[in-house]
Amino acid sequence: MAQHAVPSAAAPDARPATPVRVPVREILPWAIFAFVLAGVLLYFVGAEQGATSVFGGTWIHEFTHDGRHLLGFPCH
């Protein structure tokens, strides 16, 4: 007798898949971390130059220079 790839409804181990619930309190710290990290990266790529410069020198500007042009930020 041939066996089917899909178990029948009468099979004892055929249970419907139940979704896993993840509490918000477990996601919230990671969401805040991702938001802060994205903000810091956006600041360094988009605004760390000229009058808004927090760090002295031009090394951050030179390090993120190509990323600025790739993302459409003017820098000259």
TrEMBL record:
<protein>
    <submittedName>
        <fullName>CbtB domain-containing protein</fullName>
    </submittedName>
</protein>
<dbReference type="InterPro" id="IPR012667">
    <property type="entry name" value="CbtB_put"/>
</dbReference>
<keyword id="KW-0472">Membrane</keyword>
<dbReference type="Pfam" id="PF09489">
    <property type="entry name" value="CbtB"/>
</dbReference>
<feature type="transmembrane region" description="Helical">
    <location>
        <begin position="27"/>
        <end position="45"/>
    </location>
</feature>
<keyword id="KW-0812">Transmembrane</keyword>
<keyword id="KW-1133">Transmembrane helix</keyword>
